C-alpha cells in the first residue's frame, strides 16, 4: 500500500510538471471605460465558452480598467463584463487558434444601469442562492445580511443551519458538520470557532457553500456535510481592519464579554493579516434527571442539577501571510495560538427510593473542575499556475498541537433518610491529554478542451494522542485508585488519493464523477491494562453529481456519495469517567467507524426556490448507549454502534418579500428517521417523524435602523436510542451604523421565550432515562465595532485546503 501511494504521488507531480511543457498561449488584453471614456476600475472580466456559457478563466481589471488575461486553449469564446452600476454585457464570439493565440480588445465601453444607479443606496435584502452540481452557494456580499453583522450571524441564518450557544452546528437537523474557511479547517473547538466568527465582520464574507454531499476532493470523514465560508480577498492596498467589543448577560447572574481587533495589510507582492480575540465566556445549565429501574423491585432516581462555567482567554491569535514569488507562483503560512482557562461546577441533589414520594436515600454531590487548554496550529502552502490553460498545483502541510490539562474534585454526602445517618465520600481526578496532528497534501487541477476538468490529489496524515487519566480517593489524603486509573495512547495513520472529472455530457447536462481511496491504520493501547486494539481498513468512496438544466428557470440536481465517520479519539479511551456516585461514562476501544450512503435529488426554480429529496442509509451508527444496572441503580454511558439507520427527508427553501423593506428567507425540513441495533440491553428500535421550520426576517427601518428576527421550530426527533421532544427559538436584533458607516452598534436578545430546552429520553425494557436541561441560551447583548481602512483596491489569490482529523479530537 505504501508503494501504491508513492507511485500515485510521483505520478501526480510528473503530470503537473509535464503540463508546463505545453504550448505557451497568448494574452487577452483591453480596457473598460464608461460612455464618456472614463476608466471603469475593478470590472470583472470572465472568459466563457461560446455556445455552452461555461466559465473558462477570467480576471478583475485594475483601478484604471485595464485587464490582462492569459488566453485559454484554441476554441470559440466570449468576454462577459460586469461592474457595479453598469449593465452586464458580452462581446461577440471570437476564435483562438495556434495562428492567433491572443487578442487585444482595445476599449470596451460599459453602459450605465439606470435602475441600479437610481437605487445605488439600497443593498440587496437577501442573499442570492445558486445551486451548483455538488453544492448550494449562498452569496452574502453586498446584502443587508452582511451589513453590521458578524460572520457568525450570517452562518447561523444560512438555510437549514442552526448554531447553538456553544457553537455546535446542525445542518438540516443533523449534527457533525465540518466548517472551513476558504476550504481550510480552523482547528478550533466549537466554542472557539464561534468566538472567532463573532470577531469577524460579515462584510469579509463572499459566500457560504453548503455541501451536503461533498465530492471526492474532500475527506470522506463526516456524514452531515460541509459549510465552507469563502472570504473576500484583501482588496485594499495598505492598512485596514476593525476593533470591536461586546457584552452579554444570560439572566442567571452571569456576565460575559469579548473584545479584539483584526488587521490586514497588503503591499505589492505580499499581504498579511492578524486577528486578536480576548473573551470571558459564561454559561451553565439547570437540569432534572429522572430514572426508573425495573428489576426485582422498582427503584426511582430523581436528581436536580445546576451547573456553571466560566471560560477566560487572553487574546487568541491567528495570523498569516502570502508572498507572490512570481505572477504564477505564491507561498504562504497561517498560524494560530489559543490559551484558555476554564472553571466549572456541577451541583446535584439526588433522591432514591421505591416510590417518588417516599425516597430512602439522599445524596448531595458537588463537583468542581479546573482546566487549561492550549492549541497551536500551523499551515504552510504553495500555489502554482503551471501553464496558460489554467493548470494549478497546490501543496499544503499542516501541524496541530493540543494540550488539555484538568483537575476535578467530587464531594459526596450520603444520608439514609430512614435511619437519619450521614456518610461522606470525597474523590478527585487528574487528566492530561496531548494530541498531535501532521498532514500533507497535494492537489492538481487540469482544465481540458470542451469545458472539461480533471482533478486529482494525494494526502497523508498522522495523529498521536496521549491520555493520562488518574482517579483518587480523597477522604483523608489523595490515594490513587488503580481500578479507575488509565493511561491510554492512540496512533492513527491515513493515506488517501482521489481523482475526479467534470464536464458537460450534453448542452443541458453537467456531470461530475469522482473516486476517493482512504487507507486507515490505528493502534489504541491501554498501558494500565496492557491491552492493545489494532485496526486497518481500506475503503473506496465514489461520488456522482448530475446537474440537469430543464429550462432557463428550472433545473434538477442528482447526487450520490459514500461517507464515513471515524470515532472521536476520546471515545476509544476505556477510562471510567465519574459524574456522580450513580452515573459514569466510559470509552469503547472496540468502537467501529460509521458508514453512510447519501442520495439527493434537488429541484431548483429561478435559482431562488429549492426542494430537495434526501435519503441516507447508515451502518454501524456511532451513538451514546446508556447501560442500565437495576441492581445498584447505576447508569453507565458509553459510545457504541447501532446496526443500521434510515433517514428519508425533504428540504424546501422559499424566500418571500413582504414589502420593499421587509424580506424573509424560509426553510422547512421534514424527515423520517429509524435506528435499530443490538445493545447491551437487547435489540432496540427507535423511529420518529421529524420536522423543522426556520424563518429569518430582515426589516429596513427608518433612520437607517435594521431589525432582524430569527424564528425556528424543531419537532420531535429520534437520535440513536433517544427520543427528543420539540423545541423552539426566537431571537431579535436591532442594528445601526454611525460615523459614515464606520461604527456599527447592535443590540440582540436570544431565545426570548426560553424554548430551546433539551428534553430527551429512552425506555429500555421499562427502564426509563429522562433528561430535561436548559443551557441558558436566553441572553441580551450589546456589540460595538469600528472599521478603518485606506488604500486602493487590488486583486488577490485564494487557496483551498482542508484537514478533517481535528474534528474528531473534540
From TrEMBL:
Residues annotated as signal peptide: 1-22
InterPro entries attached to this UniProt entry: Beta-barrel_TonB_sf, CarboxyPept-like_regulatory, OMP_b-brl_3, Plug_dom_sf
Localisation per UniProt entry: Cell outer membrane
Pfam families, per the entry: CarboxypepD_reg, OMP_b-brl_3
Keyword Transferase: no
Keywords in alphabetical order: Cell outer membrane, Membrane, Signal
SUPFAM superfamilies, A to Z: Carboxypeptidase regulatory domain-like, Porins
Residues in Outer membrane protein beta-barrel domain copies: 385-786
PANTHER family: PLUG DOMAIN-CONTAINING PROTEIN, TONB-DEPENDENT RECEPTOR-LIKE BETA-BARREL DOMAIN-CONTAINING PROTEIN
Protein name, as recorded: Outer membrane beta-barrel family protein
Highest classification ranks of the organism: Bacteria, Pseudomonadati, Bacteroidota, Cytophagia, Cytophagales
